[in-house]
Amino acid sequence: MVVENVTGTITDMTFSSDGAFIAAVSEYYTIRVWDTATGQLLCTLSRENERAGYVAFDPTGSSIESGIASVWTGSSDTS
User: Fold this and answer.
1) Whole-prediction pTM value?
2) Are strands 70-73 and 63-66 parallel, antiparallel or unpaired?
3) CA distances to 23, 39, 50 from 3, in Å
4) What is the pLDDT of residues 18-30, one digit of tens each?
5) Interior/surface letters 14-51, b for 16+ CB within 10 angstroms, e for the rest
6) What is the pLDDT of residue 20?
7) pLDDT over 90 at 67, yes or no
8) Would you list the DSSP string of 5-48?
9) Which distant-in-sequence residues (6+ apart) come within 8 Å of 78 by Cβ?
10) Which of 10, 16, 19, 35 could share a disulfide with 57, CB 3.0–4.6 Å?
């Protein structure tokens, strides 16, 4: 997968435990989340003048945490 739509240098990135998502933090205060199967950018989050030093998925993959905020929650129920 080629990571696109990134402004600046990626300072941290991580995969969800199931490999379905990748999240990346750039030096310009943004967090981006992609679907690894399709490469589709799912969301971009930012907070002016606050850098996120890290990004991590929780063990269940239902939320992302960073140096600035918890950014999404979801359900692993596929039924």
Assistant:
1) 0.70
2) antiparallel
3) 10, 8, 23
4) 999 999 888 767 8
5) bebeeeebbbbbbeebbbbbbeeeeeeeeeebeeeeee
6) 92
7) no
8) S--S-EEEEEE-TTSSEEEEEETTSEEEEEETTT--EEEEEE-T
9) none
10) 16
